[in-house]
Amino acid sequence: MRFGLRLIQWLGQPTHLVELGVLAEQEGWDEVWFPHDPFMLHTWTLTSALAARTERVSIGSVGTNPYTTDPSEIGAYLATLDLLSSGRAKLGLGLHTDGMVAWTGYDASDRLERTAAAVDIVRRLLRGEIVTAAGPYRWSRQCHLRFEPLRPDPPVYVCAYEPDYLELSGEIGDGSLPMITPPESAARMVAHIRAGIERAGRSTDDVDVAGCAWLSISPSAGEAAAILRPMVAYFGPYLEEHALAEIGLAPGDFAPLKQLIDAGDIDAAAAAVTEPMLKLALVGTPATVIERIERLADAGITQINLGGPLGPDPAESIRLVGRQVIPHFQ
């Protein structure tokens, strides 16, 4: 089991996020990832800053999408980050929801075709090829990198949701980055990813299944749950119906919380979060988190990619995982 830290904007300003990434390297984490969402702190800047401050951890983006970011830019970014980090760059290309790209007027109904084409283009650019066509993209013969990448094949993961998209991630990705909220949805998602792996004639060893989970860890289970509540209230309404059903919830259960959020009353929304809703995350003491990660390993998750509030004190949570959770799996 590899351990990835996913640093979300929720945790603070850019300099603080970079410091947390540096701490993760010191505490034995394997990877540090940053979500790449429209109008949020920009992942490409954050990954570059962290690359300059670290020496060992892999560094990647989660959810760089082929709508608001063109594959020409994505390819140049990945190759540049790989040079800057001395070969530690990874890319998470795709979507976990089509809602955000819709903000800017894009229809993501062709997300499978567009994601597959973007992955193909990025890989071809890093191999030094001239790219003139792939999927919906039609380019001239001027489309090639004007510098030499460090590696021709830095890992390209596919961020996906829904069965056919998850299958595509297994077909074409060096890794897959499914959101496992709740963790109980992992087995179902892994099954779809493996169906794609099998269809492509690949081995499961070829694909790193990096399950993106929410984490809130603390020596005090009560404090871990309390800090998680606002995040569950805010993001719960956007989670997949099939995933929620794994723990007996439905999108309608979050409707009252969304009304409170829309009205600007985050405290009331957090107070309305129920105990079943807390099951969306890995929450509690190190012993509890270890037990749940063991189940995820049994379900086929090969990298646990931990984000969310992390805990009452994010830096202390990173230390707790590094000193008590990661050693258990070594």
Layout: helices, strands, pairs:
Layout: E1 2-6, H1 14-26, E2 31-35, H2 43-53, E3 58-64, H3 71-84, E4 89-94, H4 99-103, H5 111-126, E5 133-134, E6 137-138, E7 156-159, H6 163-172, E8 175-176, H7 186-199, E9 208-217, H8 221-235, H9 241-245, H10 255-262, H11 266-271, H12 275-278, E10 282-284, H13 286-299, E11 303-310, H14 314-325
Parallel strand pairs: 1-2, 1-11, 2-3, 3-4, 4-7, 7-8, 8-9, 9-10, 9-11
Antiparallel strand pairs: 5-6
Reading off the top of the CATH hierarchy, the class of the largest domain is best stated as: Alpha Beta
Beta-strand content bin: 15-25%
Query: Can you name the CATH architecture of the largest domain?
Result: Alpha-Beta Barrel
Radius of gyration: 19 Å
Number of helices: 14
Q: Please, what is the CATH homologous superfamily of the largest domain?
A: Luciferase-like domain
Helix fraction, binned, reads 40-55%
Number of strands: 11
The biggest beta sheet is recorded as: 8 strands, parallel, barrel
Average predicted confidence as pLDDT? 96
What is the rounded distance between the termini? Answer: 8 Å
SSE-based structural type: alpha/beta
